[in-house]
Amino acid sequence: MIGAKIRVLIVDDQALIRTGIQSLLTRKADIEVVGQASDGAEALEQVAVLDPDVVLMDVMMPVMDGVEATRRLSLSQARAAVIILTTFRDDDYVFRGIAAGARGYLLKDVDHRALADAIRTVAGGGALLNPEITAQILPYLGRMADAPPGPMEAPPSAPPPPPDPGRANLLTERERSILRMLAKGHTNQEISDTLAISVGTVKNHISSILGKLDVRDRTQAALWAVQHKI
Q1: pLDDT, tens only, 22-47
Q2: Mind spelling out the 3-state secondary structure of the chain?
Q3: What is the pLDDT of residue 127?
Q4: Burial of 187 (0-12, 13-18, 19+ CB in 10 A)
Q5: pLDDT given at position 97
Q6: pTM to 2 decimals?
Q7: Does pLDDT of 163 surpass 60?
Q8: Kindly report the CA angle at 46 between 44 and 50, in degrees rounded to 5?
Q9: How far apart are CA 148 and CA 25, in angstroms?
Q10: Taking Cα atoms as reference points, which of 162, 171, 140, 164 lies closest to residue 153?
Q11: Residue-level pLDDT at 159
């Protein structure tokens, strides 16, 4: 039996961008674009009507920006997973997007195959950061890890570090290896190829890692790994 397609809503204030993304995604047999929205407020309305699995959300839009729309979707416990798709590489946008509840953060110059894989990942309950974005924020997170106790110069919306670094002792050596690769932005397939194990086994290890670290998704696991120098 053929599985249901992943339902996607595209949110961007530029019609040309929305049309281009839709054209690329319609080539994917397992993905269906069910609607478009030109701002965050319209996105909230469309999500309520269309019930998409994934929302591709721009950041800078009129009426309501993408971060605020993502925050409201999270507060409403909407089923849709949000991928922020933007041209902005600023650390503050990354942290704000993650803190708002986005499951992914990608740049608009991402390859269409990587975009489709990202949609499949978040639709399946996973999360990810663009490898370029991950590399960009690693130095900042490293400074956070090295900072002495007391006030930090982190953006107000940055997610707080997990309270129990001793959880690292619960990880097996294989799980530590996979966690390091997550922190570098590697996909499940890349981890599978590097470690010569199946993608299914990778997913099982990641599920175990999330449970042991008590984090919600692979993005938080990656941030945890950098903050605790795994």
Answers
A1: 999 999 999 999 999 999 999 999 99
A2: CCCCCEEEEEECCCHHHHHHHHHHHCCCCCEEEEEEECCHHHHHHHHHHHCCCEEEECCCCCCCCHHHHHHHHHHCCCCCEEEEEECCCCHHHHHHHHHHCCCEEEECCCCHHHHHHHHHHHHCCCCEECHHHHHHHHHHHHHHHHCCCCCCCCCCCCCCCCCCHHHHHHCCHHHHHHHHHHHCCCCHHHHHHHHCCCHHHHHHHHHHHHHHHCCCCHHHHHHHHHHCCC
A3: 75
A4: buried
A5: 80
A6: 0.63
A7: no
A8: 130
A9: 46
A10: 140
A11: 45
The residue type at 190:
E
Domains defined along the chain, listed by start: 6-130 (3.40.50.2300), 161-227 (1.10.10.10)
- The type of residue at 118 is A
CB proximity list for 136: less than 8 A, separation 6 or greater? 89, 91, 94
Nearest-angstrom CA–CA distance, 38 and 97: 18
Burial of 166 (C-beta count, 10 Å sphere; 0-12/13-18/19+): exposed
What is the mean pLDDT of the segment spanning 140-156? 43
- Give the pLDDT of residue 86: 83
pLDDT tens digits for 91-146?
A: 566 777 877 888 888 888 888 998 999 999 889 887 777 666 655 555 555 444 44
CA separation for the pair 201, 165 (Å, rounded): 25
